[in-house]
Amino acid sequence: MSDHITVDARGLSCPQPVMETKKALEKAVSGKVTVMVDTETARNNVDRFGKSKGWNSSCEATSDGYSVTFSK
Asked: Given pLDDT bands bounded at 50, 70 and 90, which one contains residue 2?
């Protein structure tokens, strides 16, 4: 598998960003997954979901939303 997957979930309504994150984390198993979202609520939900699955995460604001990066 690729060691870095990027998911663009900007413009998606909840729960879609979390569902897209779930698919990517299951595919990755390890390495890095970056999820792009455009609302604070989506950022919080995606971050919480990844942590609940045992991934480390970091969030940063971008010019058009947020980037949540998971690593394992």
From this structure: low
